[in-house]
Amino acid sequence: xxxxxxxxxxxxxxxxxxxxxxxxxxxxxxxxxxxxxxxxxxxxxxxxxxxxxxxxxxxxxxxxxxxxxxxxxxxxxxxxxxxxxxxxxxxxxxxxxxxxxxxxxxxxxxxxxxxxxxxxxxxxxxxxxxxxxxxxxxxxxxxxxxxxxxxxxxxxxxxxxxxxxxxxxxxxxxxxxxxxxxxxxxxxxxxxxxxxxxxxxxxxxxxxxxxxxxxxxxxxxxxxxx
Length: 226
Description:
Blueprint: H1 6-20, H2 24-33, H3 42-49, H4 53-61, E1 66-67, E2 73-74, H5 77-87, H6 91-117, H7 121-130, H8 132-144, H9 148-163, H10 168-185, H11 189-204, H12 210-216
Antiparallel strand pairs: 1-2
């Protein structure tokens, strides 16, 4: 695992035989499922891992994923760490899985825009709250992998969501990342101005929420490769 302390070495010793007993199909979707943060839906699983309801059910049956009462699926962090280590053995699959994850959540954010700007902003904010850990990870992927189209696709929803939440400082930082990407990639001036405006508007409201925003960014031992 990442920094392999004694306890995690012991856990890996337990999980290795389980991994060895999985079929190639289940191994593939299991390791790709480590891309999710804070749980996931069936639709996200199928779009991001390429798995099916059958393969998702196999993961549940083998206690690699649990299906909670709220309808979401979740993987224990220790299992996610192990699965991530397996996924990292194929850098091409890591990048492809990250891209699919980013594209899925860019579309998800785009789908919330009408409600954020319309009569149901609280409903949209609640939907994003559920997926906010995935949204953070997806936006980071968009910036790191120079996915300018997906940034443009999701930027408006990001702006409205973070501006009206107590995560303003984080929103400012995320827009600054996007701005750097768009300028590097030669994005059009309108996109750059929008991201610059998002960072500035977020900054105007940052002083009252700095502590809350930093507290909200929960660290994890899983991290994307450089």
